[in-house]
Amino acid sequence: MTNITEQRNDRFGDMDALSTEELMYRINDEDAKVAAAVRLTIPQAAAAAEHAAAGIAKGGRLIYVGAGTSGRLGVLDASECPPTFGVSCETVQGHIAGGYGALIHAAEGAEDDADAGAELIDSLDVNADDTVIGISASGGARYVIAAVKRAREKGAYTAAITSNPNTPLGRAAETEIAAITGAEAVAGSTRMKCGTAQKMVLNMISTSAMARLGRIRGGLMTDMVATNEKLRERAVGIVMRAASVDTERARRALELANMDTGAAIRLIERGEA
Length: 273
Known about the structure:
Blueprint lengths: L19 H12 L2 H6 L2 H16 L4 E5 L1 H18 L6 E5 L17 H10 L7 E5 L6 H12 L3 E6 L5 H5 L2 E4 L14 H20 L16 H15 L3 H10 L4 H9 L4
Parallel strand pairs: 1-2, 1-3, 3-4, 4-5
């Protein structure tokens, strides 16, 4: 396997001699390549999103499994789905090698623990309605590979998000989403372009899946649950636009629906608010 993510980027051979601004311009130049690399993955990412939506509609889950930066990004995307789309924290979930403590304290050795990856899938009772997406920039994290293999054995749909072509993780999954962003400014520091690409792919998958499930209307977070003052004001605007009502009626519907925007909109549509 050619490990592009570990290669040295010749544009940064003199990075320690550059001014701060010069260095940032070069980093920014590299970052500008990410969107084009991600765009090439859209057919594969779309397949993953459609499988996830179909599975969730039947009671399944979207489960991210990653290690290091990749694991943190999966947990991040999963944690933002309940407040954004009104799904439960079980419906979209993220898991990282080394457990949640690895979110803030690096546990680099945990990615080599294949047994723990397989055990995770067993503990979650993964089934054919679930979608399991492994995330590893190198595509070689044994924890993630083992999790994807076990999930596939259990009948789940599996996908892999990587930054190298034809990886062990990609071969373990049904669909490989390989965003090839090239060598990093700091060789092997996949928190940079690779991480940015993974975040973009995860955003596309979760957002598109939720759109297919009807949890977004006209670009609005119509199933958001408002849990603070900022979100309550946002919810009023969403209900007003989605249901074509005035502020007073929107607020009344939200109060009846315990600040659940989707429920409020449905109350108005049924003439109950």
